[in-house]
Amino acid sequence: MIKTYLKKLWRWRILIVIALAIMTSIGTTVALANSQQVVVQANVLNIRKGPGLAYDVSAQVKQGQRLTVISKRNEWLQVRISNNQVGWVASWLVKNTEVSATSNQIATVDNNNTPIYLTNSETSTKMGLLQATKTVTILYTNGEWYQIKHNDSVAWVKRNAVHVTGTVDSSAQTEPTSTTQTTSVASTTQNVLVKTNNTHLRSEPNSKASIVTSLSANTTLSYIKTVNQWYEVKTSGGQTGYVASWIVTLQNKTASSGTTTAPKVASNLAESTIVIDPGHGGTDSGALSQGNKYEKTYTLQMANVIASRLRAAGANVILTRNGDSYVSLSGRASVSNKNSADAFISLHFDSSENEGSASGVTTYYYNKNRDSKLASSLNTQLSSLPINNRGTDFGDFEVLRDNSRPSVLLELGFINNKNDFSYIQSTTYQTEVASAIVNGLTAYFK
Ligand SMILES: [Zn+2]
């Protein structure tokens, strides 16, 4: 059961969100300075034209193929497949193999109006003109040509038009899209999201430094800069310190929030990011069973079973809580927004006024355009459960209202109904629900 908070949405709040979204939509991409390679883990991996499922597939690569990483945005990697072919892949479908010791070189443009090209040929499309003293990051050398980083993509410049002036030695740097990059640039438009509980904030950028504090999963930190493989960050309480970059996620602030249009969806489950929201937690116990057992206990059990099934199917799964902790309703929605979830699924168990007077499973949606396809795909599969299916319905829930991504809230049986509760507690039922959700999402992403 979930309480509906009929909080009025303030117009100015929406405007600020939209303004922030526009301000940050220019975006910054993390340029991986060291030439890093990844190996494809999936049988067939889609290469997309941009960092997300909304972008078209431009090519496919097979398991075992090595790709060179150019940059990273959210959880997507920009990779070079061949000399002229560049695209984006989901980082959770590839495996990091090596970070070579060599660094990318920086070159300075010699003359005004130096042309840059789409491919390593003067007959290919001109991408623009660079002015003297402008610096560029060299990604790749091929004959008389350098492949360079250009905005969110790459371009080619003649080697004799520039001269090498230095190297980038940090492994992850932010590079504003339109300005010159030389050394590490602090970005105020990025956040660091903590992925696991008990992540240490340390006083220095190494694992032997003293611990400033321990952070819980889903804590958001302000990114300051990168030092070696560590991010210097600031907590919401104003503490500064360092976290290891490989255990957290760097992301753009307010990325993809503020939109109510239906985002394009993944073409397959393995490429999707799914946020599972185990209802209640901590001081919020949720509804009670007849034997005074808590709803929050079973939403977390159910979430873990679903998460492991989805992960086995290759999806990138994020839980809004991993333990018995309190997470605000808006905080749950923001996990979905910040991670650009392809689907957000909130898990609950219903409760009726009088014990045992109601039974069944309900799928709630909030925004018909955005959510109803997801709701009906899941609901169709939930019909196979041994508990009566009450169908889909509109639900004014804050976790759905504050969400900018396709989202549903599932009431997976009445916890104060003896028969429903016997199912809710059983691992068989939990597994059946997980299968229904995997099947429902598979159908949804087709
Ligand atoms: Zn609930």
From TrEMBL:
CDD domains (alphabetical): MurNAc-LAA (cd02696), SH3 (cd00174)
PROSITE patterns registered for this protein in UniProt: SH3B (PS51781)
Keywords: Cell wall biogenesis/degradation, Hydrolase
Keyword Hydrolase set for record: yes
Domain SH3b intervals: 33-98, 187-251
GO terms of molecular function: N-acetylmuramoyl-L-alanine amidase activity
Record carries keyword Hydrolase: yes
SUPFAM superfamilies assigned: SH3-domain (SSF50044), Zn-dependent exopeptidases (SSF53187)
InterPro entries: GW_dom, MurNAc-LAA_cat, N-acetylmuramoyl-L-ala_amidase, N-acetylmuramoyl_amidase_3, SH3-like_bac-type, SH3-like_dom_sf
UniProt-listed Enzyme Commission number(s): 3.5.1.28
Pfam families per record: Amidase_3, GW, SH3_3
Protein name per its UniProtKB record: N-acetylmuramoyl-L-alanine amidase
Species: Lapidilactobacillus mulanensis
